Structure prediction request, 181 residues.
Amino acid sequence: MEPAGKKITIVPMLPSDWPVVRRIYAEGIATGNATFETEVPDWQTWDRNHRRECRLVAKAGDPVVGWAALSPVSARACYAGVVEHSIYVAEASRGLGIGKLLLAALVAKSEAAGFWTLQSSVFPENLSSIAVHLACGFRILGRRKRVAMLHGVWRDTVIVERRSAAVGLDQQCGCHSDAPC
Prediction:
């Protein structure tokens, strides 16, 4: 299913997409089930915290209806191929398969860029996000109980992870071991 019969395309995010990406991010924050963030950062902060080689937007015709991006999990060399991902879909476009299209494209783009592990923390109430992750080859690692507070309430998260079957299999991780990690 596609919004208003328009074909969905996944393309690289441009800085000019930021105003719509910001709005979609704010819609996700407003749900209370997408992130612990309570405010959308400014462009400079967002840009600094997300990998430039893997930023995508979903478009239904011309308008942006979703976005995906990667953030490093650590500055340590052994984690160079491990990233945290974010996927957000505009409120009016949810339930149409756009999140799954974005996540599948992000997996392909991340592998092409040399990343071997994608991970994210998902609120357990966000059943659609968990289902999309499982459909895209992610596994549930576990549940972190009362990991952080959002609006004064302790919240759990479910950790999802996808290990590439194509990238990082023969690379040394820099941990000073002779065996691949």
Q: What stands out?
A: Residues 98-112 form the longest helix (15 residues). The helical segments are 18-31, 43-49, 98-112, 127-135. Residues 175-181 have pLDDT under 50 and may be disordered.
